[in-house]
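Students often ask why we bother encoding 3D structure as a string. The short answer is that it lets us treat folding as translation between two languages. Here is a chain of 403 residues written in the first language.
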Amino acid sequence: MPTIQTQCCIVGGGPAGMMLGFLLARAGIAVVILEKHADFLRDFRGDTIHPSTLELMYELGILDDFLRRPHQEVRELGAQIGDEFVMLADFSHLPTRCKFLALMPQWDFLDFLTEHARRYPKFQLKMETEVVGSLEERGEIVGVRANTPDGELQVRAKLTVGADGRHSIVREKAGFQVDELAAPMDVLWFRVSRQSDDGEQTLGRIIKGKMLVMLNRGNYWQCGYLIRKGDFDAIKQSGLASFRNDIVSIAPFLRDRLTELKGWDDIKLLTVRVDRIRKWYRPGLLCIGDAAHAMSPVGGVGINLAIQDAVGAANILAAPLGRGTVSASDLQKVQRRRELPTRVIQAAQVFIQNRLILRVLSTNEQISLPWPIKVLRRWPFLRRIPARLVGIGFRAEHVKRWT
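And here it is in the second language, the structure alphabet:
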């Protein structure tokens, strides 16, 4: 069987894997990323690039190039709740160079990171390479087995990193224990065209038991319609016309455009899942991003938390990888560094899911404004708090100069 020998093997070419590979190659570490697909064009990939991530790109010297790419900028977040519009977050006061969220399709963002990572000679990305098992010697993971269009392949490495998402084959084969957290809803994901008089605002809409999130993607709206978990089959049985009427009841101005949804193939189900593994590592192996902790779409923070994991891991592991002596203690430091931010964000997501989203989806009556939203409306300066939680998060990472 053909074998590749490298210092670090990363399974998964998503935000966490690509950023970690980029940083390690920049630090002079030989890294191989294995991505099972032929391209990055996946449904349900988050496309909100938060100020914390934009700050990292500034530190890497690639921010100006990023901002030249097509994107939209969101400086405030609001919600239409019944007949009232409420501003929820104001990013203009963040202590970052970019005081906005950047909306860019994740496949474009990953292509951007790949382009810059390939400038380093020790970076290698292998597409259409699906990991099917791990290599283990004397209780230590020493690499992986993968299928490629040319047959089977072994990649042997001092460190293997699972960054292959919430359905991670790496964490499954490693036998990590997973703690499932509450996720009472799923999301129906679709797009409709955007017209010039629609307005610019990226926002949520809540009305009588229904919730719709609309992301301004320039010439179209990327929409997420929240449903109670397990209700999708019943919605399909009610028919496409009934679904369109539900959307019109929330966003009447979309009425003439919902004929763009020709069938259920145009509406994708995103099964929401919130979980985390108890231990992120074992000798020779580390999980980061969704492979370590699947996030709710609430706040759109998943991609940015994954990238923070990658930066934290690179800062801690680049030196021992360079020496060829990555220990379980080094891997434990990564979990200790990144586990608390994960727990804080997941706790906030679960609170919002249970106290707001489930409450809305469980009634056909118009709910009154929750007290936190009333507070934000009465004292606008408090909008800086959710802006900081969403835009920067807890324990933001920074790129070490030597990486």
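Translate back mentally: Residues 3-181+273-391 form a domain with the FAD/NAD(P)-binding domain fold (CATH 3.50.50.60). Keep this in mind for the problem set.
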